[in-house]
Amino acid sequence: MSLKVSRLVNRRIRNNALKTRPSTRAGVMVTGWGYQGKTETVCEVAAAFEDAWLAMHHHLHPQPIEGTRDLHAPVVYVQTPVTAKPKSACQALLGFFGAETKRLTLPQLIRQVADSLDDHGTKALILDDITRLRMHRADDQDTLDLVRAFMSMNVTLILVGVDILGSGLLRQGRFDEGTRQWVLPPSQHARVHGLEATQTERRFDLVELDRFRYTTPAQIAAFHDHLAGLQANLRLLKAPPDMLTGAGMPEYLMRRTDGVVGLLERLIEDGCQEAMDSGHETLDETLLDDVVLSLDDPDRDAQAGEVPAIPGSSRPHTARPAANDRRRGRNTVFDDQGPYGQAGG
Ligand SMILES: Nc1ncnc2c1ncn2[C@@H]1O[C@H](COP(=O)(O)OP(=O)(O)O)[C@@H](O)[C@H]1O
Ligand SMILES: [Mg+2]
């Protein structure tokens, strides 16, 4: 699963980076719910690419502007700000370069982004949590257009977000059955600002990073492999060799975390801390039962679905409001709110 995402991202970045002509560069969209390892997976691949690319060019910009040979940023990673508008998204991006953003209009900002990417020899642009940009209202057209303007800059665009299909990002796209890619029309901004020489559409592979499942033998084996990897790296003094993979532990961990890689990591981390503090020095169900998972992470936007529901917790899943009818929730008009609901509590 994670491997599928890594391979695809890796293939796209590397193949595109080696293209010298300004031909179209297919991008990648990585979708999946919160804490499933999207950021981690994409960044790991991008970091490996950056190392390789820098080594290949002896850490110097191959086509530098005079006096800036060492200003070389093959990979740019930007997290979309919470409640971002096109301008603030551009500013966040320019913040990566430390570029001037004050008193610039949106078209100037977009131009500045294109120039910065060009000047720094950027090959891959990762826009993380892109679905924080609200894209399902009519006045969000600007946002959609901005994303398409990014597509026309000569980089591999990697968009990472929660439930991209439901977010409206692909609203104007169409799915090409032949290549199994999404095709998006060119941007208005690009046309106006001359960013795009040819009015070509952009192609994207959409790949989903799912949670671990526990149904088929292959899925069970993948989860066991992950646990085996984890336990091999833990150093608890009284841990048996099959601490996480033995007896009913895989099923227990699945139950506690729903197979979400980030929740699993959190549970194991907190469990280990508890095991060390109490002198128990191993992880078992009794110890983990006392570990309560909570995800108060200021860097995550719960409204955008970036925080998963914790199994067994009463806190409801706070997914983003549905972008289209297919995902609209149940009609609650006739629900009995109970005495507290009626009292307004
Ligand atoms: N393959 C993995 N193995 C172990 N831990 C992982 C893996 N992928 C992600 N994590 C951990 O899970 C947590 C959530 O990952 P993150 O990439 O931030 O998720 P997302 O971007 O999907 O919300 C992080 O703490 C990260 O270190
Ligand atoms: Mg993330």
Topology, element by element:
Layout: H1 2-17, E1 27-31, H2 38-56, E2 75-79, H3 86-97, H4 106-119, E3 124-128, H5 141-151, E4 156-161, H6 164-167, E5 174-176, E6 181-184, H7 188-193, E7 202-208, H8 217-232, H9 249-257, H10 261-278, H11 285-289, H12 338-342
Parallel strand pairs: 1-4, 1-7, 2-3, 3-4
Antiparallel strand pairs: 5-6, 6-7
The chain binds adenosine-5'-diphosphate and magnesium ion (MG).
Adenosine-5'-diphosphate binds next to helix 2 and helix 10.
Verbal overview:
This protein has 345 residues and is an alpha/beta fold. It has two domains: 2-208, Rossmann fold, CATH 3.40.50; 217-289, no CATH class. The protein is 39% helix and 10% strand. The protein has twelve helices and seven strands. The chain has helices at residues 2-17, 38-56, 86-97, 106-119, 141-151, 164-167, 188-193, 217-232, 249-257, 261-278, 285-289, 338-342, and strands at residues 27-31, 75-79, 124-128, 156-161, 174-176, 181-184, 202-208. It has a seven-stranded mixed β-sheet, sandwiched between helices. A hairpin with a 4-residue loop joins strand 5 and strand 6. Helix 9 (249-257) crosses helix 10 (261-278). It is globular. Magnesium ion (MG) is lined by residues 38-39, 128-129.
